[in-house]
C-alpha cells in the first residue's frame, strides 16, 4: 500500500467533516479519510478525490447509535465506560444519552474495488499501516483552537485557588450600582476575592479602560485573585491572578463568590453589571431581538438551515445567512457547484470558492434541515438503529479558512459583523470566478465634494464603497422628557442600591438619521491646494451610483471618554420601503470653481529617506499594527497593506498620505503582489513603477501543464496571470473557458519582446450596477450587548412573504421582527 503514510507533526487530519459537505462519521454514509492527504470526504465526494489524485486507500469512519439494552426493571443498564467510542465527535443533542449508546467503527477501504479491511487488524496489516491507522485515529481535531471550550480549557488553574484566604469582613456585593472604591469609574470593575474590594482594572488586560486601582491594591496587600464583575455566569467568569500575571481558572469560584453573597448559579453576566432579574420582560434587547416569550414555530427545508455557534461565531453566521439569501451569490457558488468542486485544488479546505460553495449548499439544500421524525416512527426505527438527522451545520472549516490571515477573526472573541462583511467582500473580490463577481451587487460609487472654506473652491472625487453608514441622530429623539426622567430614576436607584427602573429607549426618526448623513461635515487637517496650506474644509457625500443591494449600517458603536466601547441603545423606525433618489450626486455645478489639481507634499523624515529609497522591506514584514490603524479608518485592507509596504513601515501617518495620493487608482484595493520579488525583477523596480520585461514562465512548469492536454500558449498566459504558480494557473485555465477566442492574440504576445505587458488599453473603472434609488428591506442583523467586543448577533430574513429569525442553529418563523433595533439592514432595489 504505497500511498499510505503516517501523519507528521503539523499535518491537519480531518476526521470530523467532509471537505465538500457537512457529512461526518455521524452521517448515514460515514466519512472517508484519505490515508495520504488526511482529507475527509463524504460518500458522494470520495470518488471525485480518488479519480483526481489516484489515492486509493481511505479509512472509513462511522458512528452507530443504538437504543440501550433495558434491565429487568425496564430501565437502562447502569452506565459503564464504553470502549467502543474512540472518535472525538459531538453527541446528538436530540437524543437522550441515558437511552442510547454509541459505537464507533473504523475500517480501511481500497478503491476502486471498495475492498474493506476491518480495524484493528494487527495480524494481517503491515506494521507501517497499523502505525498510520493508529496515528489517524488518535490525532486531534484541526479546529481544536476554535472550539468554544478551548480558550477556557487552555487557561491554567491558579496555584492560589485551592487555599485562597478570604477575610470575614462582612462585605456583601450588590447586583448593580458598583463603583471603584478609589475613583468614580463604574465599568471594568474587579472584585478582589480575598477582601471583597471593588476596584477598576487597567487597559493592558481585556482592552477596557481603567486607572489600575485593582493592581495597586494587590501591590499594597498581596491579595492575588480578582474576578471581573459583569462576567459572572453559571459557567464561570473572568478571573485574573496578579501574582501569576495572567488570566486563570478558579475551580472553587462558586464558593469564593458565595463568601460575598453572590450566587453564581443564578447569574447572567452583562457588561453593565445587571442580571436577568433586574430587567423587565420585553424591554431588554436580548429578549426583544430574540423574540423571547413568544412560541416560535421551527422552520425546516431548503433555505432554513441554521449555523451552530462555535463560541462567539454568531457574527459570521448572521452575515452568511444574509449573503446566501441573495440570488447572485446563490448562482455564483451553489449554481456552479459541479464545476467548482471538480476543478478545486488538491486541498479544497484551503480554497475560498470551494468553501463558499460548500457553505452555500449546506444552507440552501435542505439536506441538513429536516423536521423531526414522528414520535410513532421513532420507536420503530430505534428497535434497530437510530439514523440521526442533522439539523444545522457547523462552519468550522469555513471560519478557519476565511479568518486565518486576520488577527481578530481568527480568535475566539466576539467581532463586529460589519467588519466581517467587508472582510468577506474583500475575499470574494480577490477570489472571483472568472468574470463573475457576485459582490458587484453591493458596490457603488460615492461622490465626495470638499470645499475650502477660505477660497470657496471645491473638489469632486469618487470612491468605491459597499455599505452606507448612517449616524444616530441622538439629538432628534422624540421622547427626550422620558429619557431625562429615566436617567434621574436610574441614578437614584444605583446610588441607593435599589432595582433599576424599566428601561426607556431613545426613539430616533429614520428621517433624522438620513438628514445627518447628508449634512456637511468638517474635514480634519484639510490641505487646500488653492492656498498650498492647511485650512478649514467641509465635505458632503452623495451617491454617484446606486447599488443593486444597499447595505445600511447604523453607527451604534462609539467610544466613551474613557475609551471604553459603548453602544447607543436606540429604536429607529427603519422603513420597509426606502427612497434615497434625492441623494443622487450632481457633479460640478454652474458657478463652482475647482481647486487646483495639486497633491499635498509627502513629508518623509530625513533619517528614513535612505531606508525608503535603498532598502525595501520583505512583503511578509509589513507592520500589521499600522495596517489595522488604517483599516479602522475605513480603507480597504489590501490598500492599507500596500500603503504601509510602499512607505517602508514608517508608520500609519506616512502610509495615510500614500493612500490619499493613490486612492483613485484602479488597482487601489488589489492585493499586494510583487511579481519580481525573489525572481528576475527586483522589488525596488516594482516600487518605482518599473516592470520587469522577462516574464517568461519556467519551461518545466509550462511542460507540466501542456502534458495535461492544454495548449502551450494557454499555459503561458495562465502562468503569467498567476505569477508562475502552477496550482493557481490550473485554476485560472478552468475559470477562463473563453480563452480560445483570444488564442491568436496570446500567440502574438508570446513573440513580443515585451510579453509581460498584457494590454495597453486604459484600465476600466470599478464595475457598478447603477439604477433607481428605491429599495425594499429583505434582511437585517441585530446585535445584543454593550459593545462589539461582547454580546450576540441574530439575523432576520424575509422569505416567501414572511419574516424568519436565524438565531445560530435555530431557525423559526418570526412573530414580531424587531426592525427598529437592527444594526445592519439589507435592501434590494425595486425594479422601476
Automatic annotation (TrEMBL):
Catalytic activity annotation: Thiol-dependent hydrolysis of ester, thioester, amide, peptide and isopeptide bonds formed by the C-terminal Gly of ubiquitin (a 76-residue protein attached to proteins as an intracellular targeting signal)
One GO cellular component, as annotated: cytoplasm
The UBP-type domain, residue ranges: 156-264
Domain spans labelled USP: 305-830
Active site: 314 (nucleophile), 792 (proton acceptor)
Keywords linked to the UniProt accession: Autophagy, Cytoplasm, Hydrolase, Isopeptide bond, Metal-binding, Phosphoprotein, Protease, Repeat, Thiol protease, Ubl conjugation, Ubl conjugation pathway, Zinc, Zinc-finger
CDD domains: Peptidase_C19B, UBA1_UBP13, UBA2_UBP5
SMART domains referenced in this protein's UniProt entry, alphabetically: UBA, ZnF_UBP
Enzyme Commission numbers on file: 3.4.19.12
First-listed, main subcellular location of the protein, grouped into a coarse class: cytoplasm
Keyword Hydrolase: yes
One Pfam match: zf-UBP_var
Domain UBA positions: 621-662, 696-736
PANTHER family per the UniProt record, alphabetical: UBIQUITIN CARBOXYL-TERMINAL HYDROLASE, UBIQUITIN CARBOXYL-TERMINAL HYDROLASE 13
Family assignment from sequence similarity: Belongs to the peptidase C19 family.
Protein's recorded name: Ubiquitin carboxyl-terminal hydrolase
Taxonomic placement: Eukaryota, Metazoa, Chordata, Craniata, Vertebrata
Amino acid at each position: 500500500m504505497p500511498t499510505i503514510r503516517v501523519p507528521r507533526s503539523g499535518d491537519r487530519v480531518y476526521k470530523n467533516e467532509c471537505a465538500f459537505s457537512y457529512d461526518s462519521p455521524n452521517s448515514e454514509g460515514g466519512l472517508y479519510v484519505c490515508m495520504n492527504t488526511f482529507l475527509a470526504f463524504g460518500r458522494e465526494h470520495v470518488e471525485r478525490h480518488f479519480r483526481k489524485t489516484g489515492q486509493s486507500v481511505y479509512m472509513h469512519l462511522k458512528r452507530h447509535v443504538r437504543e440501550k439494552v433495558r434491565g429487568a426493571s425496564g430501565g437502562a443498564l447502569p452506565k459503564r465506560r464504553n470502549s467502543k467510542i474512540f472518535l472525538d465527535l459531538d453527541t446528538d443533542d436530540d437524543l437522550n444519552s441515558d437511552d442510547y449508546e454509541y459505537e464507533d467503527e473504523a475500517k480501511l477501504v481500497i478503491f476502486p474495488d471498495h475492498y474493506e479491511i476491518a480495524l484493528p487488524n494487527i495480524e494481517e496489516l503491515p506494521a507501517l499501516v497499523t502505525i498510520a491507522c493508529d496515528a489517524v485515529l488518535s490525532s486531534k481535531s484541526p479546529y481544536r483552537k476554535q472550539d468554544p471550550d478551548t480558550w477556557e480549557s487552555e487557561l491554567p488553574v491558579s496555584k492560589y485557588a485551592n487555599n485562597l484566604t478570604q477575610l470575614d469582613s462582612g462585605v456583601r456585593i450588590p447586583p448593580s450600582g458598583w463603583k471603584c472604591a478609589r475613583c468614580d469609574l463604574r465599568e471594568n470593575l474587579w472584585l478582589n476575592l480575598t477582601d471583597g474590594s471593588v476596584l477598576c482594572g487597567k487597559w493592558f488586560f481585556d482592552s477596557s479602560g481603567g486607572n489600575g486601582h485593582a493592581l495597586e491594591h494587590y501591590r499594597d496587600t498581596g491579595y492575588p485573585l480578582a474576578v471581573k464583575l459583569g462576567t459572572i455566569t453559571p459557567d464561570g467568569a473572568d478571573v485574573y491572578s496578579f501574582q501569576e500575571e495572567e488570566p486563570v481558572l478558579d475551580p472553587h469560584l462558586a464558593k469564593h463568590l458565595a463568601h460575598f453573597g453572590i450566587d453564581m448559579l443564578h447569574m447572567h453576566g452583562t457588561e453593565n453589571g445587571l442580571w436577568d432579574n433586574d430587567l423587565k420582560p420585553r424591554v431588554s434587547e436580548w429578549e426583544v431581538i430574540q423574540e423571547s416569550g413568544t412560541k416560535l414555530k421551527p422552520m425546516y427545508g431548503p433555505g432554513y438551515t441554521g449555523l451552530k455557534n462555535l463560541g462567539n461565531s454568531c457574527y459570521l453566521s448572521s452575515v452568511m445567512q444574509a449573503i446566501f439569501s441573495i440570488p447572485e451569490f446563490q448562482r455564483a457558488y451553489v449554481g456552479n457547484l459541479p464545476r467548482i468542486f471538480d476543478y478545486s485544488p488538491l486541498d479544497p479546505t484551503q480554497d475560498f470558492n470551494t468553501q463558499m460553495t460548500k457553505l452555500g449548499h449546506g444552507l440552501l439544500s435542505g439536506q441538513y434541515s429536516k423536521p423531526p421524525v414522528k414520535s410513532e416512527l421513532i420507536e420503530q426505527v430505534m428497535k434497530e438503529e437510530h439514523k440521526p438527522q442533522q439539523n444545522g451545520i457547523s462552519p468550522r472549516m469555513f471560519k478557519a479558512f476565511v479568518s486565518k490571515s486576520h488577527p481578530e477573526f481568527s480568535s475566539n472573541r466576539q467581532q463586529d459583523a460589519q467588519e466581517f462583511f467587508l472582510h468577506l467582500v474583500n475575499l470574494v473580490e480577490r477570489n472571483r470566478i472568472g468574470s463573475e463577481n457576485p459582490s458587484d451587487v453591493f458596490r457603488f460609487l460615492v461622490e465626495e465634494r470638499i470645499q475650502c472654506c477660505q477660497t470657496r473652491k471645491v473638489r469632486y472625487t469618487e470612491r468605491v464603497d459597499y455599505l452606507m453608514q448612517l449616524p444616530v441622530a441622538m439629538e432628534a429623539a422624540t421622547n427626550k422628557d422620558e429619557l431625562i426622567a429615566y436617567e434621574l430614576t436610574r441614578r437614584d436607584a444605583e446610588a441607593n442600591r435599589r432595582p433599576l427602573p424599566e428601561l426607556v429607549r431613545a426613539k430616533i426618526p429614520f428621517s433624522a438619521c438620513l438628514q445627518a448623513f447628508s449634512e456637511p461635515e468638517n474635514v480634519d487637517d484639510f490641505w487646500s491646494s488653492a492656498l498650498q496650506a492647511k485650512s478649514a474644509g467641509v465635505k458632503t457625500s452623495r451617491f454617484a451610483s446606486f447599488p443593486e443591494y444597499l447595505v445600511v449600517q447604523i453607527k451604534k458603536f462609539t467610544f466613551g471618554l474613557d475609551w471604553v466601547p459603548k453602544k447607543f441603545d436606540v429604536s429607529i423606525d427603519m422603513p420597509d420601503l426606502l427612497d434615497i433618489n434625492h441623494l443622487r450626486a450632481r457633479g460640478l455645478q454652474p458657478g463652482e470653481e475647482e481647486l487646483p489639481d495639486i497633491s499635498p507634499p509627502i513629508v518623509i523624515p530625513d533619517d528614513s529617506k535612505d531606508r525608503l529609497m535603498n532598502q525595501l522591506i520583505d512583503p511578509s514584514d509589513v507592520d500589521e499594527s499600522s495596517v489595522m490603524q488604517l483599516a479602522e479608518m475605513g480603507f480597504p485592507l489590501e490598500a492599507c497593506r500596500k500603503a504601509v509596504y510602499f512607505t517602508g513601515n514608517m508608520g500609519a501617518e506616512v502610509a495615510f498620505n500614500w493612500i490619499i495620493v493613490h486612492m483613485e487608482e484602479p488597482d487601489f484595493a488589489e492585493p499586494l503582489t510583487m511579481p519580481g520579488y525573489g525572481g528576475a525583477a527586483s522589488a525596488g523596480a516594482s516600487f518605482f513603477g518599473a516592470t520587469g520585461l522577462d516574464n517568461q514562465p519556467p519551461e518545466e512548469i509550462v511542460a507540466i501543464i501542456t502534458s495535461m492536454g492544454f495548449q502551450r500558449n494557454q499555459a503561458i498566459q495562465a502562468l503569467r496571470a498567476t505569477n508562475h504558480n502552477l496550482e493557481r494557473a490550473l485554476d485560472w485555465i478552468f475559470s477562463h473557458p473563453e480563452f480560445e477566442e483570444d488564442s491568436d492574440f496570446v500567440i502574438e504576445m508570446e513573440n513580443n519582446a515585451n510579453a509581460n505587458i498584457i494590454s495597453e488599453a486604459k484600465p476600466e473603472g470599478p464595475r457598478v450596477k447603477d439604477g433607481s434609488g428605491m429599495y425594499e428591506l429583505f434582511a437585517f442583523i441585530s446585535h445584543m450587548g454593550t459593545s462589539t467586543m461582547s454580546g450576540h448577533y441574530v439575523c432576520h430574513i424575509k422569505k416567501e412573504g414572511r419574516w424568519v429569525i436565524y438565531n445560530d442553529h435555530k431557525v423559526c418563523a418570526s412573530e414580531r421582527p424587531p426592525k427598529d433595533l437592527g444594526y445592519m439592514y439589507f435592501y434590494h432595489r425595486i425594479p422601476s
